[in-house]
Design brief:
The chain is an alpha/beta fold and 366 residues long. Helix content is 33%, strand content 16%. The chain is globular and about 55 Å long. The mean pLDDT is 94.
């Protein structure tokens, strides 16, 4: 495989990375009571030392009591947790890496299998986290204002601690995505509406507050998905015109890079074109995009969590699309979770040393 185009540098505002490969955010519940440990710092340091261009952290939650359903998910607030993240970014910088936290509010969630629940009810645009399943409360306008402010504080802390960028988690059925979706947003106020563009108001206000807190020169990414955990074929935007009405206001509000989550990067977003989600987002907004979805592996990630193993696969189609200009960066998940030196092995063409992925890799910080 000729992977030279994956190893060109990329610069945008506060980002100056040595290649086009991004470590995708992957939830790791290894931060007791929300505090990242030295083992978490070592985990990210290994990926930076292994030539990952940009690391995006696991989701790390903002300062709302019910922003998480798992007590071992890291916080991005509070003195102890922020000290833990300070150690993480120092470790990444010491070996020449760059990194941004993925700041997150889960919204209305299922209860965690551990039995732990936050001390306040889950919150979202409605009490539902999927149609027919009620497990929280609808946010008041005061709750919404406080949540927007908490996203802003997390963004300011990310910059203060020395991170190189940040990502807002707006995908996969979590809080921001719950506002986008008619299945969870039945509001009659200014945060609801018949159209996706109207239901994007909460996301746009979060982006504006984040941009206000970090200034113009700090790179801001948002992760979006069309699919839902309850419906892998779902499309929030069913046409390029709807996609344009959804994405352009977010670009105007301050997004620099759209991280376009798909289960399989090679699948076209709309009929009549082989462009994937990231390809359409770049075409419509003119902004940089990150593609993601089963890069470098034979199976997709949801099947992996169900116990299905994956084997290394060719990157030729990925490189073809990148060379065509469809997207700027490529996020890699499970290969990097299983092997901190995956990027280095690709760069050195040591494809015979690439590892597959199995669910056992989820049980430890390798």
């Amino acid at each position: 495989m000729n992977t030279d185009s994956l190893f060109r540098p990329f610069s945008l505002k506060s980002l100056n990375i040595k290649n086009r490969i991004v470590m995708a955010p992957m939830t790791r519940s290894f931060s007791p009571d929300g505090v990242p440990t030295p083992e978490v710092a070592a985990y990210y340091r290994k990926r930076a030392a292994g030539e990952v261009g940009l690391i995006l952290s696991e989701g790390t939650v903002i300062e709302r009591i019910s922003s998480s359903n798992d007590k071992n998910i890291p916080h991005f607030y509070g003195e102890q947790a922020l000290a833990g993240w300070q150690s993480v970014i120092q470790n990444v910088h010491q070996v020449g890496g760059q990194m941004g936290p993925q700041i997150w509010h889960m919204g209305v969630m299922d209860n965690h299998h551990s039995g732990w629940v936050p001390s306040a009810p889950f919150e979202g645009p409605s009490a539902f986290n999927k149609p027919g399943f009620e497990n929280g409360k609808a946010m008041t306008e005061s709750d919404i204002a406080d949540t927007i402010a908490a996203f802003g504080r997390a963004a300011a802390d990310a910059k203060r601690l020395g991170f190189d960028c940040l990502e807002i988690h707006g995908a996969h059925g979590y809080l921001i995505d719950q506002f986008f979706w008619t299945g969870t947003n039945n509001r009659k106020d200014q945060y609801g509406g018949e159209t996706l563009a109207e239901r994007s108001r909460f996301a746009i206000e979060v982006i504006k507050e984040v941009r206000k807190q970090v200034g113009e020169d700090f790179a801001v990414i948002i992760r979006l998905s069309q699919w839902k955990p309850q419906d892998y074929t779902h499309q929030l935007a069913k046409t390029p015109a709807e996609l344009e009405a959804w994405l352009n206001p977010m670009a105007d509000a301050g997004v620099d890079i759209f991280h376009c989550s798909q289960r399989r990067f090679w699948e076209p977003e709309f009929e009549g074109s082989d462009l994937n989600f990231a390809g359409w987002a770049k075409k419509i907004t003119g902004k940089s995009t990150i593609t993601v979805g089963s890069v470098g592996l034979s199976g997709e990630f949801l099947a992996a969590f169900a116990g299905e193993s994956s084997q290394p696969s060719s990157l030729d189609e990925l490189v073809r699309r990148m060379d065509r200009g469809d997207f700027d960066l490529v996020a890699v998940g499970r290969p990097l979770l299983a092997d901190p030196n995956w990027v280095q092995k690709i760069h050195q063409n040591k494809t015979d040393e690439l590892k597959g992925f199995s669910r056992e890799a989820l049980a430890q910080l390798i």
